[in-house]
Amino acid sequence: MAVIRFTDATQDDVEAVTDCIRAAYAKARSSIDDLPDVTSGLAQDIAERHVVLARSDDGLAGVIVFAQQGAVMKVINLAVSPSAQGQGVAGKLLSRAEAEAREAGCTHMELRTHRLMQDTRAIYAHLGWIETEVAGISVAMRKNL
After folding, report:
1. What is the DSSP pairing of strand 130-135 with strand 5-8?
2. Of 71, 22, 86, 76, which is closest to residue 46 (Cα–Cα)?
3. CB distance 81 to 20 below 8 Å
4. What confidence tens digit (pLDDT) does each residue in 8-48 have?
5. What is the rounded distance in angstroms from the CA atom of residue 63 to the CA atom of residue 94?
6. 3-state DSSP call for residue 105?
7. What digits encode the pLDDT tens for the residues 75-84?
8. Is 94 exposed, middle or buried (CB count within 10 Å of its CB: 0-12, 13-18, 19+)?
9. To bridge 79 with a disulfide, which of 7, 23, 24, 66 should be the other Cys (CB 3.0-4.6 Å)?
């Protein structure tokens, strides 16, 4: 696997982040009719939340959007470029967010994903996340710190 470098996103990265997220979700979008648009509001996310990019020599490998809410670090979005999938990029991005959560004094992390995204749910479970609720199209997950 290529060396991954982390950088904080800037407004100049909105188009590249949008492209990465669209590509990452393309397969799921083709089979899940009610998958919400997860690319809207990226400029605002970059302005108001923490958006970390995983870059390799091949370009943008992935992105994670997260924000602290009290003692919880919420993962808003995580996407890995199809060309970088299966190379541990998601785990590295989540580890980066987890380290920041610990440093901020958070007790746990939370996220939501679509209930039909079985591969995504399996990745999170492999990385130590537990499902805490399944309701409608949504699965809530948590990782204690």
Report:
1. unpaired
2. 76
3. yes
4. 999 999 999 999 999 999 999 999 999 988 899 999 999 99
5. 10
6. coil
7. 999 999 999 9
8. buried
9. 24
